Fold each of these.
Amino acid sequence: MIIETLSWGKLELKDEQMYHFAKGIPGFEEETDFALLIMETAPFWYLQSIKDMELSFVLVDPFLFYPSYEFELPDEEAEELGISADVVIRCIITLKEQVEHSTINLLAPIVFNPNEHTGKQIVLHRSPYHTKHKLINEQSTIDGKDGG
């Protein structure tokens, strides 16, 4: 399949790059099909809408920046995604011109089932995380000292 993107122009996708989000992503519920693009030279991944060339999210493996990051995936979420073994966790980041101001959303990770090619953004309840952790300085962001 070939799609048109704002950032990369035309891309030819392989089946293993395509993921279905049954309920979309919060705020973008109408968009249910995405391509997961891995950047070989950087720790970033991109989640690109297949239908809307202007809709994409920059993702990162949260464990690279926050090794102690953890949460329990509720059974109903795992069941909805068809997860029995393999799971991939990524978080949306907001890149700023000054990289030290970039943030990562640890409150709502995106959970992928690479076997079924399904995904869902999970909002964690009763969690110490929030939507704008700094990419740098783990301890101050988790214990709330950064103020935001």
Amino acid sequence: MKKSFKKATFLSALAIVVPAMSMAQDKVEASVGADLVSGYIWRGQDLGGVSIQPTLSVSYKGFSLSAWGTAGIEKEDTKEIDLTLGYTTGGFSISVTDYWFNGGPGYFHYGSHNTNHTFEAQIGYDFGPLALNWYTNFAGTDGVNNERDRAYSSYISATVPFTLAGLEWTAEIGATPWATDFYNYSEDPVCNGSNGFAVCDISLGATKEIKITDSFSIPAFAKVTVNPRTEGAYFVFGLSF
């Protein structure tokens, strides 16, 4: 993984925080869409400016395959493609995601020391009022720990949805459980990566339908995020199509 998250992008938020999976059904279902966002903030990290983020997914009986990407409007912004294969039953979910970004080896390079792919496994459970998820990198480009060994970089999150004043809200807190420089990269040598357990994402977001005509509306969302580890603060607005 590139040492500077200012130059590399990952997940998207939708695809990385909650895997794109549908409840079990008896027929194949598919969806396509895109978000226009004022900034690309992922797990408490600033990964880009104004971006278009398309998504495509197919699901059947709890299994799903989804593709998500991001491309910034600036020429130098990194482009990203993520593929997620997942399964959900009831509140339980499990998935594997392949993240890839340009700016290094081409897409079909998978060598252990010659790739821009990162492979991540996820497991989680949605209790309704609370959703818990654990994510761990298991192959591809990854960070290192304090001993400069492969970190198996991990991220854990707790998400609480609620309704208030006519809006749908989501509160989230995320953390890295052990040392890695994959998350929370900074030019500051005193605060470069996570030296151990570190809370790195505290966020609050809300969504609202913006009515365009009597029969057409566009979902809009806003999200405030702070990262206690890097002392970063972000406010993002987006539209979904």
Amino acid sequence: MPGDVSATPDRPCVKRALGDVAGLEQMAANVYEVAPGEQIPLAYHYHDDQEEVFYVLSGTLHVETPDETFEVGADEVFVVEPDSPQRAYNPDAATEPARAFVVGAPSVDDVHPYDPDG
């Protein structure tokens, strides 16, 4: 159960690294609990090779892209392809936390910051 996995320290939201506990090597699997005003730990960014899938368990997760900001509600999925900048967050005005199960594959450290003004 995700609640049985300790939260990863020093994050701007609660991250439970399920993939680490399960010993996954080819994909990352995390549950994030994002309070109003918080974002999922990485700032606006993109990956060279990693694909990501956000499955929202509760609340509404906002995903900002260069084209628009998407509101992803409970039981909805948002998919991010490689080289696609995105930032997932729960806005300040939200009335409840957002909780999401996020899978990324392959499990590589290929993240790059993205500057929408640059």
Amino acid sequence: MWPLGHVAVAYLCYALATRVRLNAPPGGVAVIVLVFGSQFPDLLDKPLAWYVGVLPTGRTLGHSLLLLVPLSIALYLLARRHGRAEYGVAFAIGALSHTIVDALPILWDPEETGAHLLWPVTPVEPYESGAPSVLELFLESLSDPYFVSEFVLAAIAFGYWRRHGYPGLEAVRGLLARVPPVADRS
């Protein structure tokens, strides 16, 4: 799944979780943490596999439940200690939804194993001819119905995000307002 799809799934899961647990829509900063969590597995694995070459594939360490579950628990406990437990919940939902959604193709693709879920206990097949390019992956994805479903999920998530009052947007605007402008170089 591509970044947009991961954000969409994470937001829909988190919106449901906050509705059930808190009877409220998602909160602003928590949504930013959620977005980061939804990208965390790829932000860790892709550079380490594709550019540094220390991981066998782009779905290993950051996609493994053996890392994500303890990390999510630790971040939750740390956030709770500082009165921000919801940030830990948001990260956990984002990161765990990412890795679970990446495992879904095992339901219809016999070549998929879901081995990344328990890496390094379960081995993954390393790249045969080096890391793929983003363009190659994108072009391969265009004919995949799973790829198209990401846009449907994104549209649904955007509708809910709008309905919830665009949580997170004000926090981002606030952060951007504090960034000093680049000096005029003319």
